[in-house]
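User: Hello! I'm new to structural biology and keep hearing that structure can be predicted from sequence alone. Could you demonstrate with G-protein coupled receptors family 1 profile domain-containing protein? Please show me the input and the output so I can see what each looks like.

Assistant: Of course. The first part below is the input, the amino acid sequence of G-protein coupled receptors family 1 profile domain-containing protein. The second part is the output, the predicted structure written as tokens.
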Amino acid sequence: MPVDPAVVKRISLWVYEAASAFNIFYCITLSLAIKTSKNKSLPATYIYNMAISNALLVMFGIAVYILPYYMSDKTYKMYRDTIGPQISVGVTFLYLHPMLTLILMTINRIAVVLSMQASKLFTANKIWFYTSLHMIANFVCLLIPYLSECQINYDQRAVGFMSECAPKRHPITTFSNYYSVFFPFVAFFFNVLVIINFKLQRSPTYAKIKRILRGGKEDQFATTMPSDVLKAKKKTERMLMIQAFITAFYLSVYELTSLVLRVAPEIFSSLSLDGKMAFTYFRLAQIPCHVFLVYFIFTPVTRKIYLDFLRQRVFCMKPAKKTIKVSTTSTSTKK
């Protein structure tokens, strides 16, 4: 029985809409849960960056990909000519932000692996500073093409980003399109190395190699740090390692489809218009799942914080009572 592309398109759109609605709720409540949490070992700055940017990306995605579906061609033309370039810049900016934040997370991980003293360079305030820098650089790189004759404007009817100076594109746009796809793969590779390093920590041979690389010296910052503080920092770094790895893996899988389509564009071009839209909506439906997958499925600490927040703050339920097991021991006395 042949599959009707129009039916697949409608189903994929529903999936994307449902995932988007859930994502906005989840990202907002997750940010509030982290804000009200007393757990100081959380990499909160990275969580805020990922959650807020992902929620905004989904909102812009609704404006770019979902709303035009319900518009007539005439209405959509007016809509696209009026705010199309602006929301196209917005969706691209928010699409690149998690990738750049992932690169920062990876650098953070590598630096701490080399020396615990590097954690001083990645305090919450400094991470906000670094993310502000890459946000400014990202915005400038998108603003320059926007102000040129080669504006980028997404066309939902043609299922693609169109340049106003087609077939040409601004050099910055060309550079970004070509190289940004490799960001998650590079981050994934280095995060795998970090995990291998973590697994080898208990090996005496590996400890000797690290000592040789440091010139026979121990990590002074780690040895002079109080044990409770060191334990908390290691817990945070372990959590960040898992989150960076899952994020890199997830974004790599998403970008793999872009790489395949770039290598073999005839695969996409051979599809009907409904087929192209179905493929695009199914691919876009992965974006809202990113934050939920990383911070709920694969991070038990943030999952517990989030569920407690929902229970107490959203549904106004009493916190779960902790049961204390009392073990009774019988003692025998000799007479």
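User: So the tokens describe the shape?

Assistant: Right, they're a compact way of writing down the 3D structure. Reading them back into a model, for example: The chain has one domain: 5-314.
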